[in-house]
Amino acid sequence: MKNLILNTDSYKASHYLQYPPKSEFISSYIEARGGEFKEILFFGLQAFIKEYLLTPITQNDIDEADEIFELHQVPFYADGWQYILDTYEGFLPLKIEAIPEGTIAPTSTALVQVINTDPKCFWLTSYIETSLLRAIWYPTTVATISWRIKNLIKSYMLETAENCDGLEFKLHDFGSRGVSSNESSTLGGMAHLINFMGTDNINAIMGARKFYDCKMAGFSIPATEHSTITSWGKDNEVEAYRNMLRQFAKPNSLVAVVSDSYDIFNAVSKIWGEDLKEEVIDSGATVIIRPDSGEPKEIVVEVLKRLYEKFGGEINSKGYIELHPAVRVIQGDGIEESSIKEILENMKAHKFSAVNIAFGMGGALLQHANRDTLSFAMKASAIQIDGKWRDVYKDPITDSGKRSKKGRLAVQKDDLKTVRIEDLKGQNLMQPIFKNGKLLIDLNFDEVKKNLL
Known about the structure:
By secondary structure, the chain is of the alpha/beta class.
């Protein structure tokens, strides 16, 4: 929906009548209050600004909203929106500040701060909460999940591999078909690509091009699905695999083949390990075997054992098996953070290095998260009434975790502590990003990724 006036919750439309008389400015902030993790990876604000806030509202937008809210039986501030159109040519009189995208911050850090720039539009700060909060909690949560998994895989590589080469391709985005919308695929897929470079999510790479000036943020390889194998028939399974070798297996290339359409153990030990072994090795490619059913931690180790038996490998300096470079494994079924840990732990117990495997992650990466995963919220923290600033906060006796911050805020660069602007020590990490229809800082994707370091 491109009508920003309608990109809100119904009750927001009547809030202009609910604030105290002589209200002039309202300052609100967004934070992840806690939830499942102690740290978050902030991402997604720039995409929202470019997609929604750099395009002015129009008379048609106001007229449409006026009709909708009247039919919806909710008061609508048509005069307020008309003022924005007439005075600011339809651009929102707001200032948005934020910490740099890509920053790793403790939960409860103020990530974004919003304030109206025209006292006649005091109601606008809260009005934009629905669209702005949604635009931030989702990509930030996905980026955080992806970042945590990267750290998990890295820890096993440090323990069981000679180095961490290829870490950026150890988690592949399989999630585009499993999300609720095209936009979710774009935002979540981009968030993953801050941490990794493997993806089958075309929306993600197009989003990175559009919003973060990245020519190509992620990469993929030729890979089968079950239909391209089973269409050959069970009796011709070997020919289906051979066709993949002849079509795509070139020196120094990668090709992934799902191998459990019928019998994964026969496919690995007999077809790949005997019938096609010489063709695999002679091709100079790496064939990535993909199991797609069964108990992941058990199946992966069994496949690795059979590949090692047939193709061999070597024991690295840390005492773990690294398969012959002609073969590797990717597990894309049942993958989430906990199952990745179980698989890697079982591999380690059987002396297989983490270098032998990559993971494909779908719904658990892009769809399982919700706003409560990190307990995201946007709250007003200060209001100016008749020239005087007052604190605004909530402090429910039934849930101290929902206590909100007071005052106009800053984030100290040295310790990432959120403080009142009056109490700031050193540099404020929160910088102006948007004001009155203009983007003030335009990050490219590489700059976002560098902020993780």
